[in-house]
Amino acid sequence: TSHEPRATSHEPRATSHEPRATSHEPRATSHSEAISQSGDVVHNASADRPGLPPASMDRFLHLVGRAETPLDIGRPATEIYAYLMDVARHAEWEQTIQAVEPASATIEPTSDAAVGPASGATAGPVIGAAVVPASRVAFGPGARFPARASYALRWDKLPLTTQPSDDASVIELVAAEAPLHIVWRTTATEARWSSETELVLERIAEAITTVRMRRRLLAPREQLETLVYELQERGYPLDVVQRQVDRSMHNLRTILEGRAKPTA
Description:
This protein is α+β, with helices and mostly antiparallel strands. Helices cover 19% and strands 27% of the residues.
């Protein structure tokens, strides 16, 4: 027998470890764009605003420009609706409105659903410290109310109080459906604070109503982006409008449930 070892080859098999060609060239963007870690393009995040995170501008704009707060209020929907339609009394509860003058024009309503309380009307049912007029006057959608407003970055107004105001605004009643739905538009001298406000009333029980307040700023995107940067640079939260709506709704409930006490 032969014990000669069988020839074997231990030569290593040729393999290629050459790195695969990839491109890590940065994507070209204009001077007014930046790219976030997720790849989103954020406009107007230019080098003249250092330190701002390149996050999603759309998300920021939603925080800045929209708000919604629902609250259950211990009053019938008809009484709440009557109080809300008394636009001159919005200064009692609304955070930004400090004074409202009578409507500048009389608008003939198309139905009883679009009717507000009369100026100097006889007293009606008492709602806390608020007296809802019993008689009604013919103003509805289209009625405009000169107002004094404050768009300071605060959300601390107490019910039945006012704060310093520096903006001549106009409140226009846009829609009204008794006792379910009211919409008004506020045009501010400082245009970026102009807004549309909607209140929806839902009857839960005879003396319990869910009131939902929605607000959106009407300024164009460019102005709202500027507002985002200003709030960030000054250290304010972006949801200022939401905080103001929250405060307004709690003031409204406090007044309507009879817990508000007029200040001396």
